[in-house]
């Protein structure tokens, strides 16, 4: 299980930043071809980004994802065609501005055969996408997470980029991802000078059910890993439950007189994976 507590964006035009981003402590590095790239730089960003995967640096357990352009745009089509043409594709792509499950299926079909292993992460940030968030989450087995794109969503909803006006949209994305049993990652906090504000929002997002949050600067990562990390007592309890399950996988799982059901067991594995990842990172520093 891949922990997804924190995700850092790095621009596709600056490939030299990628190896550095892999060492920030973030669980995911997303190389952006979309909104962080000026229209005139799209071809350069695409070429430089795909070149990174020809002889990729060791990731140390970090998950690399390339954010392509919307598949309903010429740039997005070029991105997908370039990925189809390379023998060394990125392991995962992020699909922005998705409006329907068909759009995801279409990407899945296109990549089937040549690049069947590529994973998907889908941003919910349009009114149509929000309306069909659960169907989108279930559209393909390749999808590992939904992301909440607050900036685009706020513009579509005609509301300011603030917590309260976006609460319904955030909650709906969490519900869709939880129902589909995939991760759900909140938008980055954009004010680099307001670290307290970021931590407040990260805690609120974690309480709402998000499994992680994006970042635009390495200094934001430790707080995110803390806010979305596992509580030590809960980890110890999870280890006991997993131990009991693995000792008798075919029986009913009863710990401390309580019946533990499958979804709970799954969340316990997730907790332990998070804790192990945090411990690995602690050792690496
Ligand atoms: C992210 O893509 C956003 O629109 O906030
Ligand atoms: Mg967006």
Question: Would you spell out the secondary-structure blueprint of this structure?
Answer:
Elements: E1 6-11, H1 17-22, E2 28-32, H2 42-51, E3 63-67, H3 74-85, E4 92-95, H4 101-111, E5 119-124, H5 127-131, H6 133-137, E6 143-148, H7 150-157, H8 167-180, E7 183-186, H9 195-208, E8 212-215, H10 221-227, H11 232-247, E9 254-255, E10 258-259, H12 262-284
Parallel strand pairs: 1-2, 1-8, 2-3, 3-4, 4-5, 5-6, 6-7, 7-8
Antiparallel strand pairs: 9-10
Helix pairs in contact: 11-12
General description of the model:
With 285 residues, the chain is of the alpha/beta class. The protein has 2 domains: 6-228, Alpha-Beta Barrel (TIM Barrel), CATH 3.20.20; 232-284, no CATH class. It is built from 12 helices and 10 strands. The strands form 2 sheets. An 8-stranded parallel barrel has the order 1-2-3-4-5-6-7-8. A two-stranded antiparallel sheet has the order 9-10. Helix 11 (232-247) crosses helix 12 (262-284). The longest helix has 23 residues, at 262-284. It is globular, with a radius of gyration of 19 Å. The mean pLDDT is 94. The structure holds glyoxylic acid and magnesium ion. Magnesium ion binds at residues 35, 96, 125, 149, 151-152.
């Amino acid at each position: 299980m891949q922990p997804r507590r924190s995700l850092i964006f790095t621009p596709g035009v600056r490939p030299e930043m990628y190896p550095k981003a892999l060492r920030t402590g973030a669980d995911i590095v997303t190389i952006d071809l979309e909104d962080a790239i000026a229209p005139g730089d799209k071809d350069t960003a695409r070429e430089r980004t795909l070149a990174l995967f020809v002889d990729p640096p060791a990731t140390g357990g970090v998950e690399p994802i390339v954010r392509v352009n919307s598949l309903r745009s010429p740039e997005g089509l070029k991105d997908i065609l370039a990925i189809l043409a390379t023998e060394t594709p990125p392991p995962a792509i992020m699909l922005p501005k998705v409006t329907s499950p068909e759009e995801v299926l279409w990407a899945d079909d296109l990549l089937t055969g040549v690049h069947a292993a590529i994973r998907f992460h889908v941003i919910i940030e349009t009114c149509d996408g929000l309306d069909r968030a659960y169907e989108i989450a279930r559209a393909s087995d390749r999808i590992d997470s939904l992301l909440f794109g607050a900036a685009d969503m706020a513009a579509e909803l005609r509301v300011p980029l603030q917590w309260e006006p976006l609460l319904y949209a955030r909650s709906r994305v969490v519900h869709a991802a939880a129902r589909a049993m995939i991760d759900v990652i909140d938008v980055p906090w954009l004010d680099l000078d307001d670290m307290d504000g970021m931590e407040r929002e990260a805690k609120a997002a974690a309480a709402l059910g998000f499994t992680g949050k994006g970042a635009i600067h390495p200094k934001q990562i430790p707080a995110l890993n803390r806010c979305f990390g596992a509580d030590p007592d809960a980890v110890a309890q999870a280890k006991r439950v997993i131990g009991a399950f693995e000792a008798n996988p075919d029986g009913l799982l009863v710990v401390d007189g309580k019946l533990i059901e499958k979804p709970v067991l799954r969340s316990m594995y997730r907790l332990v994976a998070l804790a192990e990842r945090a411990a690995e990172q602690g050792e690496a520093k």
